[in-house]
Design brief:
Layout: H1 2-10, E1 22-23, E2 31-35, E3 42-44, E4 47-49, E5 56-60, E6 69-73, E7 76-80, E8 89-92, H2 97-100, H3 105-122, E9 142-145, E10 150-153, E11 156-158, E12 164-167, E13 173-175, E14 180-189, E15 193-201, E16 204-211, E17 213-214, E18 221-222, E19 227-230, E20 241-248, E21 251-253, H4 255-259
Parallel strand pairs: 8-10
Antiparallel strand pairs: 1-2, 2-5, 3-4, 3-6, 6-7, 9-12, 10-11, 12-20, 13-19, 14-15, 14-18, 15-16, 16-20, 17-19, 20-21
Bound molecules: zinc ion (ZN).
Length: 265
């Protein structure tokens, strides 16, 4: 157990002012993995979080997190202060007006139902630890959109960009960046088009949208590098790309912090 913890710690380059071993970036949009002795209760801001049988747990800082977060493991506690980031402003023009300011009752009802379906799968706290081995890029390509950017669509301010965009030709295979279970397949979401969500355990899910084809089914298990679909531009997209998002329950984190630099083919 002690040796396993040492090996685990050796894979991180961070020394944090916290006696609880955690790895990841203490930054807005950062995901942290911690490890405690199996059975130790862990809480974040007083709320208990799932600890795996190996002692692993997760916590995340949101895009706009500014306040220190209290992490407690057994009798040890730390205040974790996320570093601030400066976000880009991204302007996208030429989108169909209906996809920027939907007004038709049937569009609004559809959006509500789709958002509820996504919220439901993001609420699940499964015991899997498929996040433990880290994440790769689901494909290689030019980063055409970064996490956190304030978006101005057809001149109108909209919600911040909660994932990364990777531009690639239509049909490019999308590969699972980590093992997981397919928890949502949707062939035609209003904004997202063809959509897949993978569950990696402990409330951590990843989403793949705008695809031209989906090659997995709900409840299917996928391994790292397994194909889940192909790049497209379904839903609200101005060109072929994959939008990849990673979320811990309701908190969006920056996939780029998990996958590291984009490999050059
Ligand atoms: Zn996007």
């Amino acid at each position: 157990m002690f040796l396993a913890a040492l090996v685990w710690l050796a894979t991180t380059a961070y020394s944090l002012a916290c006696a609880i071993p955690i790895k990841g970036r203490l930054v807005q949009g950062g995901l942290l993995t911690g490890r405690v002795v199996s059975g130790t209760p862990v809480s974040v801001m007083g709320k208990p979080v799932r600890v795996s049988t190996e002692g692993l747990f997760l916590l995340a800082f949101g895009r706009d997190a500014t306040q220190p977060v209290e992490l407690k493991a057994g009798s040890v506690s730390c205040m974790l202060q996320p570093q601030k980031r400066v976000y880009k402003i991204s302007r996208i023009d030429g989108l169909p007006p209906r996809k920027v300011s939907p007004r038709a009752p049937e569009d609004l009802a559809r959006i509500r139902a789709e958002n509820a379906a996504i919220r439901d799968v993001r609420r699940v706290d499964s015991p899997a630890t498929d996040f433990a081995g880290g994440f790769r890029w689901p494909l290689t390509g030019r980063l055409s959109g970064v996490f956190g950017a304030q978006r101005i669509l057809n001149g109108k301010p909209r919600r911040y960009h909660n994932g990364v965009d990777i531009a690639a030709p239509i049909g490019t295979p999308i590969l699972a960046p980590a093992p997981g279970r397919v928890v949502l397949v949707h062939e035609d979401m209003f904004f997202a088009g063809k959509t897949v969500i993978l569950d990696h355990g402990h409330g951590l899910t990843s989403v793949y949208i705008h695809m031209s084809a989906i090659t997995v089914k709900e409840r299917q298990r996928v391994e790292t590098g397994g194909m889940i679909g192909r790049v497209g531009m379904t839903g609200r997209a101005s060109g072929p790309h994959l939008h990849w998002g990673v979320t811990l329950f309701g908190t969006h984190v920056d996939p780029q912090l998990l996958a590291g630099p984009m490999p050059t083919k």
